[in-house]
Amino acid sequence: MKKKSKVWYLENFNFFAELSLEHRTFVCQNTVMRTIQKDELVYFQEDLAHSVYFLKMGRIKISKFSEDGQEFLVTILQPGEVFGEASILGINKRKEAAIAEEQVTFCVMKEEHFRKLLLMSPALNLKFSQLLEDKLEKTQKRLQDLSLKNNQQRIIEFLRETALDSSKEHKGELIINNSLTHQRIAQLTSTNRQEVSSVLSLLKKNRIIDYNRKVIKILKMDQLVSH
C-alpha cells in the first residue's frame, strides 16, 4: 500500500493522534497495511503472538473457542481500536481468535517495533497503559454482570454502554450504527436472541428507543436504565 495511504491513516487514527511527525514516520516505516474478507482470520487461538494490530476499516470479532469448538464471543471491534496487544504483555500465544465480520483493513506492527515506539513516546505509552486498564475493567464488569444482573438488565446495560461509547448525536438523539444483529447482542450479553428481541421491542413500544436495520436511536437516554 502506498505511503500516502499510511499517512492518511495515521492522521485519522485516534491512538496516534498526539504523535510527532518523527514518530509518525517511524510508524509508517514499520507497519504493513492489510485487507481481508469476511470470515477470514487475522489470527487464531494458540497462534504465536508477535504483532499488534490497528483496525482502520470494518469490524472484527474477538472470540474464544472451547476444546469442542464452541464459540464464546468476547467483543466486536470497531474502526480505530487496537487489538492483539497480548504480545506486549509477554504472552507468547494468542488466547483468542480475531475474525473479520466483513471486509476489513488493518495495520500490523511487529512487537519489537511497537515496544520501541512506546519508549520513544511517553505520552503514547501512558495512552496504551490506559487502554489496557480500560479493557481489563470492561472484562471484569462483564463477569460481574453475569453474576449480579438478569438478562433484561444486561441487554439494557449493553445498549446504554454502546450508546455512550460509540454513538453519534443527531437532532438530540444518540444514533448507534445497527451493525449488530440480535444474535450478536445475545452473544455479547450471554442471553438469547428471543430475549434481545423482546427487550428491544418493549423499549421501542415505550418510545425509549427506535430502531431499524441500519440504526438504533436512543430517544430517552435518561430512561434507558435497568431495574
TrEMBL record:
Domain spans labelled HTH crp-type: 149-222
Gene Ontology cellular-component terms listed: cytosol
Alphabetized GO MF terms: DNA binding; DNA-binding transcription factor activity
Keyword terms, alphabetized: Coiled coil, DNA-binding, Transcription, Transcription regulation
Positions of the Cyclic nucleotide-binding domain: 15-135
Coiled coil: 129-156
Superkingdom of the organism of origin: Bacteria
Gene3D superfamilies assigned: Jelly Rolls (2.60.120.10), Winged helix-like DNA-binding domain superfamily/Winged helix DNA-binding domain (1.10.10.10)
PROSITE patterns attached to this UniProt entry: CNMP_BINDING_3 (PS50042), HTH_CRP_2 (PS51063)
Short name of one Pfam family: HTH_Crp_2
Full protein name: Transcriptional regulator, Crp/Fnr family
